[in-house]
Each structure stands twice: as C-alpha cells, then as structure tokens.
Design a protein that fits this description.
It contains 11 helices and 12 strands. It is an alpha/beta fold. The chain starts with 12 loop residues before the first strand and ends in a 13-residue tail after the last helix.
Length: about 325
Amino acid sequence: MGIAPLLSGPIGFGTAPLGNMFRAIPDAEAAATVQAAWDHGIRYFDTAPFYGAGLAELRLGEVLAAQPRDDYVLSTKVGRVILDEVEDPAARELGEKGGLFEHGRPNKIVNDYSADATMRSIEDSLTRLKTDRLDVVWVHDIAQDFYGDEWLAQYESARTGAFRTLDKLRAEGVIKAWGVGVNKVEPLELTLDLDEPRPDAFLLAGRYTLLDHDRALQRLLPGAAEQHVDIVVGGPYSSGILAGGTHFEYQQAPAEIIAKVERIKALAQDHGVGIKAAALQFSLAHTATAAVIPGATRPSRIAEDVAALGERIPAGFWAELREERLISPDAPVPTV
C-alpha cells in the first residue's frame, strides 16, 4: 500500500482554487497557473468534481490534455455527482463550508457515495479531464464539517459503496490507488480500523499544518505509518493564512489565528525564513507524509512554492517555535 512510489516528488498541485473558490478567476489565469505548475516540474495534480461543480476539472483537463498521459499522476474524488440542471451556488447547503464555491458553475451537486454514483462520478470526471484513466481516487468529505451529525451515516454509505467499488477497481488495475480525502481526522481513524477494504493513502486537508496538527500527530499519523498508508497533506497554508491570505478553515481568520500567524512570521523573519518554506517543510517532515499539494491561482505562486521546498531553515527557528508552544514538542521538523 501507499502512493509514494507513484509520485515523482514531494509537491503536487491542488486545484480547489481553480473552481473559483472565494473569487471568480479568469480562464486564462487558471490555465497559466496550471501551465506554470507543469513548467516548474510538478507532475502530481489533484482535483474534484466539487471544486466549482466541475470547473476545476474542466480547467485542469484543458491544460493537461496537451501533455503525455504517462508523464503525470492524476487524482480526483467521488461522492458528489454533477448534474446538467442548475441551482444557486450561493444557496447550497455545505455545512461549515457555506458559500465556498459560490463563484463556480451553477450545475446542481448531488451528494451520493453509492457504488453506482461512484462509477458515474468517475466516468464524468474522465470526460471533464479529457483523459482515459485516473491514477488515484479519493472518497470526498465524509466528515463532520460537511454533514454534521449525519456524517457517520454518510461514512457508512461510502464504506459499503464507494470504498468497495474503488477497492475492486484497484484490484482490476483500472486505478492504481484509492483513499479518503477529508478535512477532519476522525473519518481516517475509522478507516484505519477497518479490516477491509484497505486504502492506500489519505488526503488530509488542513489538519497537519503549522497551525493545526496536534490531533493528527497524536492519533492518526502513527497508525497510518504503521499500516503504510501514506498521507498527502492538502491545504498546507491553512486556507491561505500562511501564504499572505486572510482565510483560515475556508472562512475569514479569527483574531487568535491572526495573532499566532503574526508571531510565526516574526520568528521566521528573525531567522531569515520564508513562511511558505516553514509551512511546506513542516508538513513534509513526518515520515507518514508523502506529499503536499498547495493550491494557487496565479502562476507566480508556483515558483514560490517550488523554491520554498529547497530553502534552508535553521534549527534555531524550530527550537523557538517549540519554546513558544507554537508547534507541538513532539512534531518532527526538518533537519538541516
């Protein structure tokens, strides 16, 4: 199990912003950003039908269609089916993530983790992405932040539907790997406890970052490492607040988070460290982590991300973060 052998490096490209998350992005800007990722050597691309009701997949597919299919790794997600009929994107019920893609396409989104919906979702994604195959498929958002008290029922539907379907597709060689992609730790802990089916990896967004990592560090990552289930860290900039933005957990950052970020930035400046470098390298330092997949909507951001991976961070910076309890004393950090 694991997906690290599929990946050519520790950084991929997350396409949620290309679904017009937070703002409407011109098609040309989106295409230029994907092209910049390719030109900087990124060969792992992650997307989902949910991102703008298919918009991110369409935009990604337009650019990647010009590249040899064997030269990159592609993942998307199941759990939402995109229909031809329309709805008001701003009025969708998205739990804690209300209004997240209100600038996306108006196509109706239906939550469905059944076996039939899983197959339909994959077929529709292949069409939007202009490709004949997927490498990795994640079961998307079966967690509290989207479904509240109903999340366990949604999880059970996915366990008996999407999980088994993807496990079969992997056994048949149709896909190379599958897993669960969520913003919460608990569904992944449940999945690790299953006797079968067995996932290859997890996509965990926002829960193993500089700003939020305690629960994943204590409970999830040790078990994942023991079972050889790789972790892909999504949202390593915590929705943008660690990269100069104003959002945390997909909403405007609260005062306590802003204050914490400002202190981390001050220490980073004292040590000559870029905040992006600190964020990416922290998430990658754990042995369970296979890759990080920051998102972007401007080509210049890609160059910053790639450069951040190679930046040298002195041990004294991490020591001060620990002393001020800005990171867990048990969290592994990069070694110089």
